[in-house]
Amino acid sequence: VGSPVFEQFRRDFFGTDFKSHAEPDLWAIEHLSPHERESAELMLIEALDSDDVRPIIGLGVLKSRRSLRKLRRMFRQYNQGYTTNGFWVAQALWRIEASQEVLPTLLNKLEQSEYWSERVIGAAALSDVNTPESFAALRKALRDPDSLVRQTAKNSLLLLSGIDTDSVLINFDDDPPAALREAIQALEKLLS
User: Fold this and answer.
1) What b/e sequence results for 103-126 when a residue is b if at least 16 CB atoms lie within 10 Å of its CB, and e otherwise?
2) 142-178: per-residue pLDDT in tens?
3) What is the rounded CA–CA span in Å between residue 106 and residue 127?
4) DSSP states of the chain
5) Rounded to an integer, what distance in angstroms lies between the CA atom of residue 47 and that of residue 33?
6) What's the N-to-C CA distance of the chain in angstroms?
7) pTM score
8) Are residues 156 and 138 in contact, defined by beta-carbon separation less than 8 angstroms?
9) Residue 180 CB contacts under 8 Å (≥ 6 apart), including other chains
């Protein structure tokens, strides 16, 4: 039995009450001791062969260099049409080594998905991707038909700019075109 933090990590990344459409809670994995991080990394690498995305997400958060070989292989398999977890693998590879090879996969989630929930995930993932392409995609997403996508894009832009998301009260929930234009202008002014 590990520390309470390690046990919480184990529940978050290996528990059965996980909902496949949501990311695991990252608090525990971010607060593991160095020894616990090593144990967690080995457990997550071993679990990569499952269809569960949580090990992929966890290895990205841990910036696991040990998992790079396996994650790169998984990404190649995704590009060849053999797996479906390519987005999560791309996000992990970006977090570990900022691989330019995965950038199109990350951008596609936001720019190409017909489902608002997928675009929200894409916008959130880009909060780690400090490139001109991600800034452009997030700025474009400020005009998305769904308010949650717009709000998430705003928060990702703020995070990329080093601005605390709680300190900015620009509302992207409003659907009237004039209110949305004003919100976009206010955010652009803040980011410049």
Assistant:
1) bebbbbbbeebeeeebbbbbbbbb
2) 999 999 999 999 999 999 999 999 888 888 887 778 8
3) 11
4) ---HHHHHHHHHHH-TT--TTSPPP-HHHHT--HHHHHHHHHHHHHGGGSS-SHHHHHHHHTT-GGGHHHHHHHHHHHHTTS-S-HHHHHHHHHHHH--GGGHHHHHHHHHH-SSHHHHHHHHHHGGG--SHHHHHHHHHHTT-SSHHHHHHHHHHHHHHTT--GGG--------SHHHHHHHHHHHHHHH-
5) 21
6) 50
7) 0.85
8) yes
9) 143, 150, 172, 174
User: What single-letter amino acid sits at 101?
Assistant: E
Q: How many CB atoms lie within 10 A of CB 132?
A: 7
Per-residue confidence (pLDDT) for residue 17, from 0 to 100: 67
Distance CA 106, CA 2 (A): 35
Dihedral pair phi/psi, residue 47, rounded to 5° = -85, 0
The set of residues, in sequence order, having a beta carbon less than 8 Å from that of 94 and lying 6+ positions away, is: 60, 102, 103, 106, 128, 129
Q: How far apart are CA 159 and CA 154, in angstroms?
A: 9
Distance CA 117, CA 35 (A): 36
